[in-house]
Amino acid sequence: MRDGVTLRANVYRPAAPGPWPTLLNRTPYGKDDHLEAVVWPGFDPLQAARRGFMVVVQDVRGRFASEGEWDPFAFEAQDGYDSVEWAARLPDSSGRVGMYGGSYHGSTQWLAAIERPPSLAAIAPLMTWSEPMDGVFARGGAVELGLALLWALDTGVDHVGRLATDDADRRRRVAGVIDERDRLVERGYRELPVHEMAPLARHGVRDIGALRALDDPAVAAQCRVEGRHERVAIPALHTAGWYDLFLQGALDNHQALVAQGGKSRLVVGPWTHQQFADPVGEVGFGQRAARAAGVAHTEGSWSDLQLAWLRRQLAASAEPAPSEAPVRIFVMGRNVWRDESAWPLERAVEERWFLRADGSLTPWAPDRDEPASTFAYDPADPVPTTGGHGVLLPGHATGPVDQARVEARDDVLVFTSQPLRDDLEVTGCVRVVLHAESSAPATDWVARLCDVHPDGRSFNLCDGIVRAAAPAGELAAWEIDLWSTSNVFLRGHRLRVQVTSSSFPRWDRNLNTGDQRDDRFEIARQRISHAAERPSFVVLPVVAAPAR
To answer: Which of these, 214, 280, 288, 350, is most buried using a 10 Å CB contact count?
Structure first.
C-alpha cells in the first residue's frame, strides 16, 4: 500500500498463458476460508479461473495474513485504489479489473470505485448498503443492535488473537470472545446502557461502527455511498435479497446510478443475508429461486449471470450485451422471476389501506371517528424479533417466519383485511403512516406487512421502525419506511399490518425516557388514532395484473 503496509492475497490463474481479465475480492473474513470465498462472492474462485479469469482474493488491512491495524472501513478507499492498480499489474493480467463480493466485500468495491482507480472497469456488489445509518449501523434512528454485537464479536476473534503475547494468551482471549458470543441472547443484548457495548468492552473488541457512529459522524462517512454516486462512472451489477438487511441500500444504489445516466443492472431474489435456497426462513420458494439454480436465468445460475456480465465489462473491446433487461426480480407469492425495464416499477400505483379500530384493514377510509387502539410497551419485555431482515443468532430466525407468537402478544396490534377476491400484487416501497401518541417523551413505532395464508399462517414481508420524540400525550404523525418488497397476495389470502414498539434484539429497545445512554426505563402507554381526520394507514405500491 502507499504507506508501506503489506496486504496479502491468494491469486488464482487459468492454466493457459494470459492476458486474462482480473477479478478482485477484498475480504475481512479470511482469504483462505474457502467456504467464505464461495458463499459471499457467490462463486468459487477456482471455477472462475477455470473459466478464463484471474481471481485475486485479498485480506484487508489488519485481518488474517495482512499487516496493519484493523479499523473497520477506515482504509478501504485508499487500500482499494492501491489494490486494484496492483492487481492490474500482475503477470498475465489484462490490466482491466472488476471487483466482486457482498456485504463488507461490497463496501470495499464502492469505496474503491469512488476513488476512481484507472484500471477498475466494473463492480458487482452483492447485498451492500448505500446509507450506513439506514440498515448497517441504524434504522429509523434505532441501533441495529443484533448486527452490531454479533458482527463485532465475529470479527473480534482474529483481532484479539493478534493482540496475544503467546499461544496460551491467544487461546484465552479467543475463548472469551466465543463465550461472549454464545451468551448474547441471554445476556449481551440486554445489557444497558447500550452505547457502552459491554460485551465488546470486556474483551477489547472493536465496534464495527454502530455505536461510534452515534457520536462521530465521520465513522458513517467512511462507508457511505449515498450522495457519492456521481464519482462512479463504471458499470455496476447489483444483487439484493427481499429479506436482506441491506436490501434498500442496494435498490437505492442502482436507482442512483441509473438517474445519473450510468450503466447498472439489478437482480433481486427472495433471499436473506445468509440463506439463498429453500427453505428461506420457513417458506419454500421453489428450486428456481435458489441462487445456485442452473435454470433460473438465461445465462444459467446467478453465478453464471454474474461471470457473464463481468466478462463483457472487462473485455478488451466492449462486447455487445445480449438483450437483457436492466432489472430482474423474483415475485413472491407467484414465485417467478420477471424482467422489468426499471426500478421502481413505473406502472405501480399507490393505494392506501386503513387501520381500523375493529382490527380490520380496509381500502376505504373511516368516515367517522373510531376509538383509538392502545397497548403498553414495556422495555423489560420487548417483542422478540421473529424473522425479517436482520442477521441474528440461532433462536432468532431471519426471512419469512410465521408470526403467530408475536401476534398473540398484548403489545402487538394486528389489522387484517378480508380474504382477497383476486390476486393483489405489491411491488415497490411500502410505508406506514401512524397518527399516534405516547405517554413517554420518546418511544419507538414499529410496523410490519404480512401475507396471511388461508390456513391462518401469517408471514412477514417487510418492516420498519422510527425512533420518535414528542411531548408526552401529544398526537403526531409518524411515517415508517418498511423498505421494499415484491409479493402477490393470492386470492383467498389476507393482508395484515402489525403495529408495536419493539423488535428485539434486532433493534435496541427504546427506554421511553428520552435518554438512551441510561440504564433506567419506563413503561409507555401507546395510542393509535383511527379518527376520520387523523387516520393511520399503510401505503402499498399496487401493480395491476396484465390483461388476459
So the answer is: 280
